[in-house]
Amino acid sequence: MFTLEKRKYTWLDMYRIPFRCAPVSTVIVTLQKITTALVNVFQVIAVAEFLDRAVTAVTEQKWDNGLALWFVLMLLIACWKRVSYNIGRLFTRHLVLMGNRQVLEEFTEKQNRLEYCLLEDPETEELTNRVTDRLEENLSEMLQRFLNFFAIYIPRIAGVLLIIASQVWWLAIVVMLMTIPLVFLSLKGGRKVYRADQEAAVYERRHKYLFEVLTGRETAEERSLFGYTPKVNEQWYGQFEAARKIDMKADAAFTVSMQGGSIVTSILASAVCLIMIPLTVSGALSIGLFISLAAAIYDLVNLMGWEMTRAVSQIARFGEYMRDLTAFAALPERGESAPEDTAVPAFERLEFRNVTFRYPGSEADVLKDFSMELERGRHYAIVGENGAGKSTLIKLMMGLYRDYEGEILYNGVELRRFPQKRWFEIFSCVFQDFARYSLSVEENICLGTGKMEAQAAQAAQTDQTAQRMQAAAEKLGLHEAVKSLKYGYQTRLGKLDEDSVDLSGGQWQRLAMARALMNDGEVLLLDEPTAALDPVSESALYEEFGEISRGRTTVFISHRLGSTKLSDHIFVLKDGRVIEQGRHEELMVLQGVYAAMYETQKSWYAAKGEA
Predict the structure, then answer these.
(1) Residues 297 and 427 in one domain
(2) Which of 116, 282, 419, 459 is most buried, by the most CB atoms less than 10 A from its CB?
C-alpha cells in the first residue's frame, strides 16, 4: 500500500511507488520484461545456430536434425514476444488502476492537511499541480521506462556484448563505447523537457481556465450579456501559443540531439559490421554468427538511438519529478506537532489572549493585541466594518491559520496543542462563500457528518442520520420544499445532470446551515453566510437559527446589525481590536460606534417594525 512519506524521493522510487501500489502486478511485469530481454539475447544465438546449420546442410547436402530444433526455438521466441506484450499490457493496466486510486488518495489527503496559507500560495499551487498532473500517465510511464531501461535494454545490451566478447573481446569494448554519448545526451534532454514542462504549465493552466470561461455554463449569461468572447479569446490564444512555443522548442531540441546521436551511432554500427567481415573471412566468426550479430547490432542501434535514449530521458525527467514529490511531501501540515490521541474535553470557555496576526506575505497586522472570551451556551455577535478582522477570527478559530502571536485558549489549553481533526470536532462553520455541491440533497446535508451520505453508515446509524438530516431541514424550513422535488432527498442539485435541480439563493443558504447543524461541534460559527439576502430576510433567518441552536454556543459574524439583538453579547471590532462590547441595550446607551452603526441601518428593518 502506497503512503506518502516525508523523505527524499529518488529515481529508484519509479519502481518503489508502483510496487507499493500493486506488488503482484509489478513483479509479474518485471519478470515479463526480464524474460523478454533474455529471449532477445537468446535469439542472437538461435539465429546464428540455425543459419550455421542451414549453411552446413546446404553445402554438405546432409540434413541436420538440430536444424528443426533451432527453427522451433525461433518460432517459440516469436510467439513469446507477442504473448509477452499482452501479459505486460494487462498487468500494467491493473497496476495503473490500483496505483491511481492509492496515490491520488494520498495526494488528496496531503492537500487536505496542508497549512491553509499554503493553499493560497501561488508557488505551492504550481508545485501541487506538477505533482498531481497526469497522474495515471505518470504511474504507467514510471514503471515502463524504469523496467525498459534496467530490465530490457541493459540486460539485452550486456547479453549481446557478452556474445561478441566470447568471440572478439576488443570488438565488445568498441560497441560498449557507442552507448556512452547517447546516455549523457538523454539525461540532458530529459532535464530540459521537464524544466520546459514546468515553464509551460503556468500558461497551460491559464489557457485552460480561459477556455472554461469561453465555454462553461456558469459564465454563459454574462458571456452573452457583455459580449466579451472576442477579447477573452484573444487572451486564451496568447496563453495557448506561449505554452505551445515552449513545448515545441524543448521537443525540437530533444529530437535534434537524439536523432543526431542516432546518426552517429548508426555510422559506428556500420563500421563495426565492416570490421566483422575480415573476422568472418578469417574464421574468427561463423557466417551465422556474423549475420546474427550484424542484425543484433543494428537492432541495438535502433534501441539506443531512440528507445533507450527516450527511456533515459524519461528517467531523468522523473528524477526531476521526484524532487518535486520530495518538496510536496515536506510541505508543513496543520497540527503536526500535536499528538493524534489528544483528548478534547467538553467546551466551557474559549479565550483570545493578546493575539496578534498578519497574513503571510503581508506587513500589516489584521488583529492587534486582540482579546475576547466566549462562554458555553451563549450567543455572540461580532460586528464591524469591512477589514476590521471579523472573518480572520473565524479562520483562527477553525485552525486555518496557526501562526499567530499570543494565545487562543480552549478551556485554558492552547488550541495549537490539539491536532487538526480535533479542532473540527469543536467547531462547525457556515462560511460566507459556502460551497454548492452538485450532489444529492441528502449528500449535501450529510457532508456535515463527515460522510458522503446517510447510507454510508450501518443500518441503525443510517436511520439516526436520516432522522437528524430531516429534522435539520425541517427546522430551517427546507423539508417541504425538498419533499416537493421529483426524487425528494435523493434529488441531485446543480446543473451537471439532466435531472438536476438548482435551488434559489436562500434555499442554498439554508442547506448550508443544515449541513452545519449535522456537525456535532459545540461551537457554531456563521461567517456572513446570508450576505446575499436582504437585511429583513437575514435577520429572520438568524432568528430561526438562534432558536434551532439553543443550548449550543454560536458566533454570528455580520456587518449588518439586525441580528445582533438576538445575541447575549456583542463584540465591536475596529482595526483588529475590540473597541466596544456588551448587550445591544448597553451598547445603545453607550452611544458609541455600535449605536451609530445601528442608527444608520435602522431603516433597513422598518418592514418588521424593528426600528
Answers:
(1) no
(2) 419
The phi and psi torsions of 381 (rounded to 5 degrees) equal -125, 135
Last residue of a domain, one of 329, 358, 392: 329
Q: Going by C-beta distance under 8 Å and a sequence separation of 6 or more, which residues neighbour residue 565?
A: 584, 610
Beta-carbon contacts of 540 under 8 Å, excluding residues fewer than 6 positions away, are 608
- Burial (Cβ within 10 Å: 0-12, 13-18, ≥19) of residue 61: exposed
Using the 8-state DSSP alphabet, how is residue 371 labeled? E
Q: How many CB atoms lie within 10 A of CB 294?
A: 18
Residue 35 burial class via C-beta count within 10 angstroms: exposed 0-12, middle 13-18, buried 19 and up: middle
For residue 77 the three cell numbers come to: 521466441
**What are 509-543's pLDDT values in tens digits?**
888 888 888 887 888 888 876 665 666 666 676 67
Residues in the chain: 611
For the stretch 89-128, pLDDT in tens is 899 888 888 888 888 889 888 888 887 778 777 788 888 8
CB 192 within 8 A of CB 250: yes
DSSP-assigned letters across all residues of 541-608: HHHHHHHHTTTSEEEEEESS-TTGGG-SEEEEEETTEEEEEE-HHHHHHHTSHHHHHHHHHGGGGGGG
- Give CA–CA dist 199/461, Å, rounded: 51
User: Does 399 lie in the same domain as 284?
Assistant: no
The verdict on residue 341 lying in a domain is no
Structural domains in the chain (count): 2
CA distance 379 to 524: 9
CATH code of residue 257: 1.20.1560.10
Does residue 287 share a domain with residue 359?
no
The CATH number given to whatever domain includes residue 590 is 3.40.50.300
Domain residue limits at 262: 13-329
User: pTM for this structure?
Assistant: 0.67
